[in-house]
Amino acid sequence: MEKVEGQVVHGMVMKNGYESNLYVGNSLINLYSVFGAMEDAHKVFDKMSERDVFTWTILVTGYAKNGEMGEACEIFGMMPMRNAVSWAVIISDPAAAISNPETALPFF
């Protein structure tokens, strides 16, 4: 799938009234993250009326995997809830994504 196709899917989601669905929102954030479109991912996040720990974790992971560690750290710091899964992702993804464990240190 290309980013343009993802945008078409997003448009269909909005047209059909599924934009308020938590799972659909999480999937859209992940979709944009995969394409490196973190501004679009963050816009989806900002428009969501409901967020869970996975919503936050998907956004943080997207920033980390796209090399935006500062933004990832900032969002992680704002997370209202964290669980073992979010910590595991936060600990493993930044170092793996950029192949430099030192850049993962801001998370600790």
TrEMBL record:
GO MF annotation list: RNA binding
GO biological-process terms attached to the record: RNA modification
Domain of life: Eukaryota
PANTHER family on file: OS07G0636900 PROTEIN, PENTATRICOPEPTIDE REPEAT-CONTAINING PROTEIN
Claim: Repeat is one of the keywords in the record: yes
Alphabetically ordered keywords of this record: Repeat
PPR repeats: 52-86
InterPro entries: PPR_At4g14850-like_plant, PPR_rpt, TPR-like_helical_dom_sf
Protein name: Pentatricopeptide repeat-containing protein
Keyword Translocase among record annotations: no
